[in-house]
Design brief:
It is a single chain. The longest helix is centred in the middle third of the chain and has 19 residues. It is built from 13 helices and ten strands. The strands form three sheets. A six-stranded mixed beta sheet has the order 5-4-3-6-8-7, with helices on both faces. A two-stranded antiparallel sheet has the order 1-2. Strands 9-10 form a two-stranded antiparallel sheet. It is an alpha/beta fold and 358 residues long. It starts with 5 loop residues before the first helix and ends with a helix.
Length: 358
Amino acid sequence: MVQLDIASSFSCLLSHEVFLFPCNFYFYILPLFCKVYKAYDLLFPFSLKNIPKKIFKTKARIFQKMKCRKCNKKAVVNLKDYKIALCESCYPIFYEKLVERSIKRYRIIKEKEKVLAAVSGGKDSVSMISALKEIQKKLNFELEVLHINLGIKGYSEKLEKIVKDVASILELEFNTVELKDYGFTIDDVEIKKICSACGISKRYLMNKTARELNFDVVVTGHTSEDIIEFFFKNCLSGNFELNKKLIPRIDSFDKKIVTKARPIFDRTEKENMLYVLCKKLPFSMDACPHAPRRDWKEIIYYIELKKPGFKRAFVVNLAKAMKPEFKEPFKYCMRCGEVSTSAICSFCKLTMKYAKKK
């Protein structure tokens, strides 16, 4: 499957740790491909562009001779944080054990809970649902898939098909909700407010759908990069209290609120990307046509290059430092009855404003 979101995919694979292709591929084929899509700087972030070709090729050849520690086959990844090289078959098993360990350590999913996984179709949510499926029986919880179709022309249809295919491969129940059923789509929102409207809509529909289908927990595929990005943005905007929400699990505080959880909060985009490639699962790398520049992700990648292990240490220590209790004053929306901090919830304000255009 040919994909276009170079920034979120190849950039997190191109390091000294992952060589899925011959070294010449990175220096000659990919740069030509990226220039076509004007994404060269995103594909080769920061210090990677300054690495001399001879040094890069030498390290690539050395890596290609490395063997998997588990089975002695040719390794496809060298995980420096864990000091282990793994092959295409052993890496997914190792990844799933890491997810399982985090779920147990932070009690992200509890025994016998009914879990609804929100899957967009990107590499992160696909890796999450696949890993959860593999450890489902061991941890004893129920699992189904939810996809929210935001009505983005030429984009949402592709994502929904991918998620359906993933659910079919994993033999999981597929549930879908369409934003257009509420009178508008993301395409109807003006450009400056699209990202805010998208987030509001997804949070509202995830919670409402999970509650109506009697699920205990909604899980999302937020990665360590996402958590760090949210933290920085909250600090710069002065919303320090919101950082208390950046924990692996936020338990319900009202009968209309479903517990939220992030099973792969301490996994990186690179790890997720490699997992879905090794598992040969369908996924989309197409960038959302409304997505802004990924400046924050580039900054996080840069820090990780300079300080290896930064991302994992940051989110793990943040999870330990933040107290799980987070309860703000709330009321119920006058229009839909959902939990809100104002008389009319943010989602209803969107429907009141944009549904009239239909």
